[in-house]
Amino acid sequence: MTRIFSGIQPSGELHIGNYLGAIRNWITLQQQHTGSLFCVVDYHAITGNYDTDLLRQRRWDMARSLLASGIDPSKAALFMQSDVPEHTELSWIFTTNQPIGDLERQTQFKDKAGTMESIPAGLLMYPVLQAADILLYRADRVPVGEDQVQHLELSRDIARRWNARFGEGFFPEPQPLLTPTRRIMGLDGKAKMSKSLGNTIGLLESDDDIWQKLRPAATDPQRVRKSDPGNPDVCNIFQLHKAFSPEATVAEVDTNCRTAAWGCIDCKKVLHTHMVAELTPIRTRAQLLADEPSRVLDALADGARTARTIAQETMREVKQRMGLDPLKVS
Ligand code: AMP
Ligand code: TRP
Fold it and tell me: Which of 21, 9, 11, 12 is nearest to 193 (CA)?
């Protein structure tokens, strides 16, 4: 049986990069695979300095945005990582047998640690906790964006190493599930869309705010005047069309760009229409959930209960295989 698990940090508002790279896939997968698990990984979000009130707010916002995006608590478990203490328990177990060198080679670690004077050990251990998140549910498929592929490779190493020592075949080797939109570029067209770079479109932004961001967004740099033919293959706006617009529109955009029948603003207006059509229902649901926060809390409580049942069973078996099971008088 395929088991789906994924996680996301509560590190600010969801943006369309997260949505297209991961969350939209979660919504599809929960329909196909009953028993999928989706986790707000709040323990991953405390590896640097942070404001406690802001974190509390962001944990709320992330849970609400995921439900608004279409995670259905009657189909999948949505929960907070810190509500299931087995995540940190299994993480410690994996840490005891994890070569430090492999952790130091992780791109995300190098990027983050490079800017720090004093590096918290938690930042180095971050992917070990991520492996524990996944393996605690013995999940074998993990829908994420491209930036997480390296972390999943490490998760497979961890599973393999533990299995070799304590129980062949116990943990599956989790594979990433990527989408065609595995790496959405920011509005500057230069770097990956990312909250920390300030080049995002938030999932819950108003129609007008989205337009204010799309209007000046980068397109094919060779296309200076409206009469210049463009190359959609190098245009970030075209990539977004492929993500949001129906196929017929994508074909029309392709032709009208290459023949200069449309200018970039015309093209962006059409994109805006299709983006708004997909994002408006999400925004509406987010507002309903903001008015009725108990629905968010109920979903999280149910999700944590489901998750813990599986997590406790895994830990019982892990401890038994490692000689850590409850002592008995023989
Ligand atoms: P993060 O916001 O970095 O915690 O990422 C949450 C999820 O969104 C992960 O699965 C990422 O791989 C994915 N993701 C983040 N940014 C992008 C992007 N620009 N394009 C595609 N996927 C992304
Ligand atoms: N590291 C992931 C990110 O930055 C978040 C994450 C934590 C995760 N645990 C996970 C993703 C488990 C998938 C599975 O996006």
Answer: 21
Tell me if 175 sits within 8 A of 139, measured CB to CB. Answer: no
Residue 86 is assigned to a structural domain of this protein: yes
pLDDT band at 305 (very low <50, low <70, confident <90, very high): very high
Instruction: Tell me: do 176 and 244 sit in the same domain.
Output: no
Same domain for 238 and 97: no
The residues annotated with a catalytic role in the active site are 112, 192, 195
- Report the predicted TM-score, pTM, of the whole model to 2 decimal places: 0.95
Please indicate, yes or no, whether residues 89 and 229 belong to a single structural domain of this protein.
no
The verdict on the CB of residue 63 being under 6 Å from ligand 1 is: no
Q: Is the pLDDT of residue 196 over 90?
A: no
Interatomic CA distance for residues 203 and 279, integer angstroms? 7
* pLDDT for residue 180: 85
- CA atoms within a 13 Å half-sphere pointing along the CA-CB vector of 91: 20
Ligand showing the shortest atom-to-Cα distance for residue 154: 2
What pLDDT score does 284 carry?
98
Task: State how far Cα 129 lies from the chain centre.
Answer: 15
- Host domain of residue 252: 207-286
Mean pLDDT over residues 100-126, rounded?
95
Pocket test for ligand 2, best of 18, 20, 29, 39 (most atoms within 8 A of CB): 39
Domain assignment present for residue 195? The answer is: no
Split into its structural domains, the chain has a count of 2
Our answer on whether the CB atom of 184 is closer than 6 Å to any ligand 1 atom is yes
DSSP3 helix / strand / coil % (the chain, rounded to 5): 60, 5, 35
Distance CA 326, CA 311 (A): 17
d(CA 43, CA 9): 8
Q: Is residue 17 part of a domain?
A: yes
Pairing state of beta strands 5-8 and 141-143?
A: unpaired
Cβ contact 35:3 at 8 Å:
yes
